[in-house]
Amino acid sequence: MATTSGTLNGAVDVAAQEPTNGIETNGVEHIVDESIAVKPNAINDVPRLLEDIASNGEALARDGAQNRRQLLEAARSLVYALETPRESMIRFCWSQSTVFAAIESSIKLGLFKALSKDDKPKTAAQLAETTGAEPVFLSRILKHLGAMGVINETGPDTYKPTNLAKTLTIQKYADGFPCMNDCISAGIEKLPQWLEKNGYKAPSDGKNCAMQIGFNTDLHFFEFLATNPEYPVRFMNHMAAYHQGRPSWMDAGFYPVQERLVKGLDRDAPLLVDVGGSTGHDLAEFRRKHPEVQGQFILQDLPEVIEKAQTLISPDIKAMEHDFFKEQPVKGARAYFMHSILHDWPDNKCQEILTNLAQAMKPGYSKILINENVIPDTDADWQTTSLDIIMMSLFASQERTERQWHALAESAGLKIVNIFTAEKGVESLIECELA
Q: Where in this chain does the record put each O-methyltransferase C-terminal domain (predicted)?
């Protein structure tokens, strides 16, 4: 990666290229000592983090996986604290893009399937013969996958699968990697360019954000998905994998279904209307987890989605074509439910969606249930903040804080009466009523 231009023995002439390392404040330049680049980021935090890891490790052994996330966060924080700024910079710049390329190439090659046929170690030569890949090339890919913890290295050019490698043989999980390259990553990569051009303010138009630059299109994200039949399939598989294993508002102890939804139910009115509910997976989950709840269930989405949904849903769910930017045809339902709908749209469009629902609600009876992320004021989860940057880049939308949710609800004549949250980094259930 070095250049020999104008230098001795191939070394880069750093002094000639290096910019001033000062920070200017009120006309006074403060020099940043470059030695911090090779010192740990937060060495003083290490003893406390080691204590946290020891404590959480003992609890994990004693109580099972209940505190696994706390242990994982402490371990991750320890790595960040021990890492030097130079190491952090190189990790961000080099490892993430290269391991992504290695994983996607391995998925398409069938490498993980070949490696995961059994738990016996396999050499690069054996895997090259199975997959048809050029041996020297495959050895390089395998070394990087091993270095990044995607697979286990057991000897020279010899590897075994991890649980991650085995999971990547399942289409739902494997599709996340081509999905990102198909319709997501290029938009994120162009966010700095879009922000610089537009004065560093968040975009507010889904047809004028980084996505259009990244994919050289004037289409909205959802319109772009429709340009290739593989795109929506991979996107939906990626979303399904994202939701796998996460607490659901329908689980016991999350949202009091009997108390807040079933009690006082008017049997002549629909119980639950899933607005923009795709092929009905949420309603199917509700019926499975609460078979004792009787009522009318309605699934709403665009015609092409409903056509597919009708072949998948059970007879007790009514499929209905509906555009949520238009008047809501179902009046006075007990609850109108939306799962990860509003984060796709900027505030003005969300206001339209919510206003259409508010106008269909029965005062003192109907409610809106919004299943979305609520970003906390402190200690936000990296998954949620990552998704927020993705939504900014692709949709000119966002993941919202509690204050932003209240403001949005009030703009449509609603009030938030409860926010139910199971754990950090998991979508909450926001319960709204007419103001």
A: 270-414
Give the CA distances from residue 414 to residues 247, 278, 356, 433, in Å, rounded to whole numbers and listed in that order. Answer: 26, 25, 11, 6
Neighbouring CB atoms inside 10 A of 26's CB total: 4
- Among this protein's residues, is 343 annotated catalytic? yes
* Marked catalytic residue, from 144, 243, 343, 406: 343
Distance, in Å, from the CA atom of 120 to the CA atom of 116, rounded to the nearest integer, reads 9
What is the model's pLDDT at position 18?
52
Which of 133, 144, 217 lies closest to 182, judged by CA? 217
Number of H helices, E strands in the chain: 22, 14
Q: Which residues contact 331 (CB under 8 A, 6 or more apart)?
A: 360, 362
Same domain, 251 and 236: no
Based on the fold, state whether residues 158 and 187 are members of the same structural domain: no
Q: How many Cα neighbours within 13 Å face the side chain of 414?
A: 32
Is the separation of the CB atoms in 410 and 355 below 8 Å? Answer: no
In contact, 180 and 113? CB cutoff 8 Å: no
pLDDT tens for 161-181 read: 999 999 999 999 999 999 999
Tell me, yes or no, whether 397 and 252 share the same domain: yes
Asked if 102 contacts 145 with a C-beta cutoff of 8 angstroms, the reply is yes
Residue 26 pLDDT > 80: no
Out of 20-24, 62-66, 147-151, least confident range: 20-24
Residue 359 · residue 414 · CB < 8 Å: no
Structure token pair of residue 407 = 């403001």
Task: Give the pair of three-digit tokens for residue 411.
Answer: 């703009």
Beta strands in 212-313 (DSSP E): 272-275, 297-301
- Write the DSSP symbol of residue 18: P
Domain membership flag for residue 131? yes
Say if residues 142 and 127 touch (Cβ distance below 8 Å): yes
Mean pLDDT of the chain, nearest integer: 92
From CA 216, how far away is CA 85, in angstroms rounded?
A: 35
Closest to 181 (Cα-Cα) out of 295, 97, 279, 253: 97
Domain span at residue 111 reads 87-169
Number of domains in the chain: 4
Cβ–Cβ under 8 Å, residues 167 and 173: yes
Q: Which pLDDT band holds residue 429 (cuts at 50, 70, 90)?
A: very high
Mark whether 259 and 390 lie in a shared domain. Answer: yes
